[in-house]
Amino acid sequence: MKTQQSRSAGRVSEREMRQWLSGGLIRPESRLALFDQFGEPIDRALVREAIRLGYAEPWFANPMRPEWMVCRLTARGRAALGRHDATR
Fold first, then answer.
1. Which of 76, 72, 67, 75 is nearest to 23 (CA)?
2. Alpha carbon distance 70, 88 (integer Å)
3. Among 28, 41, 50, 60, which residue has the least CB neighbours within 10 Å?
């Protein structure tokens, strides 16, 4: 899995990306977390980069919190996680 720096969004680390995407492997319907383990919102730059790379896709709009982008893991995201794990 390779992430690239977005000029406007700042740097997104591969470790952060993998950690967030991995949650989709265990949640129903491959849903990705809105918050990290400390209760902080997932960085929007990370979400946008995952969508840009095709690893995540917007799933549905949250009517209660329209600023929250509810996403799920894509087949490409699963494949990217699998390729990395296979090389360990």
1. 72
2. 30
3. 28
